[in-house]
Amino acid sequence: MSASLKQSLRTSSWERLVKQRTYSSRNGYEYSSYVLVKEIALTPFTAEEIRQDKRSDFVYFIPVIIIEPESGSYFSNRNNLQELGFAPYKSRRIPMPPEPTESTTINLKPDNKVEIVVGHEVLTLEHDDQAAKIIASCNNLAIGIGHQSGDYFARVSSPPQTIFPTFPGRTGALLNHSRDSTLADEIARSHKYKIKMAFGSEAYLGMPPSSDYEFYASTKQGVSLPRQVNLGRHCRACNRPEVTREHCSPKWLADRYSVEPLVARILCKSCNSWFGKNLEQPVADMFQKGMPIDFETLSKWSIKTAITMSIAAGSIVDPNWLPKLRDNQIPQGLKVYFDTQMRFNEHGFAFGISKLSQQLREKSQFLFGLTTPLFSMIVINAAEKRINIPLNQIYPDQFTIENTHVVDFSRLYQRMHEELTDDGTEDYSIHTRPPTR
């Protein structure tokens, strides 16, 4: 199926394409104005200090124009689109390349109308069109062509231009908590919001795939857990339209060392209870009461913990994995390494999550690591790659590593991430705050 922006957004909780007006051009084809409301978890990064700050919800308001060309017209020719600087649409991307096309310009008219010149074509938006107001405020828009092979988009901007596109935006969650009337009100005032630069890993069309990783800790000395953000209102295991506050990191572990847990709203009450009864409590009994180790249960618990902690920290995870675990099955391709000889040397826990490129996620690749004073654990799907992991494997087969030596778990995780992604990484610090318990 060809990639379409409208098709992609039908299943998205984080984006909404809101139509504003439909116009007829002088050459007889129609074009429509939209506002793309895109909600993301934004993590500011200070380059001078090589430091990442607190994560928070942020909403961008992006003006979009989509042309519906007639068959045989200039815009229906794919070669013409490529010459004009249009790129094919890919889901989850901001619908534009980062570089503006040189063949298209924005003209702000004295009567406050907005005129967009595309090659020899002129598109006009009325002054009271909300998309036109946003364009006037940020001097950027995405222009798309509804081609039979899929949507094609270009970035339109007039000098002076920024390296990355800028749009009005505000902090806070919106789409999972707002009625359509509230959303319309937000769009109506959005042109008055502060203009922000929008960028990130794989944010735009045509950008090469990229991956990064983050390493967090919760100890008696300091806490760098990611801030809770809006994860939607549907259970990730059964899709019920309800979620409850859940301990993604093991509650019994946080209680044992009196440190802050990682919590998020991911599961409904029923699924949360099921995982607690069938996975969390049996594993807690293994370590708290000395019950015999059941490697199948331990493997399922490790995978469930890896998935929920990754989601809570902002990683995109295969949506079929939690439903599979809820059916008491292990998702295909995942391997679990669990070792009680490699341990965290502080009271608390630390963990690494990998935010993999779409290209790697399409292969179901995944990486997560957790270290505690009791054990260290790795859950990975490396697909065809061979990665050396110096921990005992417990799933799908059981292998014992002889003479396991204690290593710096954060460095081990960094090395595994680099091997998995075939890409280097940069060392930086994550915002740390004093513990509250």
Count structural domains: 2
Mean pLDDT: 88
Q: Fraction of residues in helices?
A: 10-25%
- Largest sheet report: 8 strands, mixed
List keywords for this structure.
437 residues; alpha+beta; 2 domains; 8-stranded mixed beta sheet; 6-stranded antiparallel beta sheet
Structural write-up:
The chain has about 425 residues and is of the alpha+beta class. The protein has helices at about 5-10, 80-85, 130-140, 180-190, 250-255, 270-290, 295-310, 320-325, 360, 410-420, and strands at about 15-25, 30-40, 45, 50, 55-70, 85-90, 105-110, 115-120, 120-125, 140-145, 150-155, 165-170, 195, 210-220, 245, 265, 335-340, 350-355, 365-370, 375-380, 395, 430. Helix content is about 20%, strand content about 30%. The chain folds into two domains: about 5-195, no CATH class; about 210-430, no CATH class. It starts with a helix and ends in a 7-residue tail after the last strand. The chain has ten helices and 22 strands. The chain is elongated.
Q: In terms of topology, how is this protein built?
A:
Layout: H1 5-9, E1 15-24, E2 30-42, E3 45-46, E4 51-52, E5 56-68, H2 78-83, E6 87-88, E7 104-108, E8 114-118, E9 121-125, H3 130-138, E10 140-147, E11 150-157, E12 166-171, H4 180-189, E13 195-197, E14 212-219, E15 245-247, H5 251-257, E16 263-265, H6 269-288, H7 295-312, H8 321-326, E17 335-339, E18 348-355, H9 358-361, E19 366-371, E20 376-381, E21 393-395, H10 409-421, E22 429-430
Parallel strand pairs: 4-22, 5-10
Antiparallel strand pairs: 1-2, 2-5, 3-4, 5-12, 6-11, 7-8, 8-9, 10-11, 12-13, 14-18, 15-16, 17-20, 17-21, 18-19, 19-20
Helix pairs in contact: 6-7
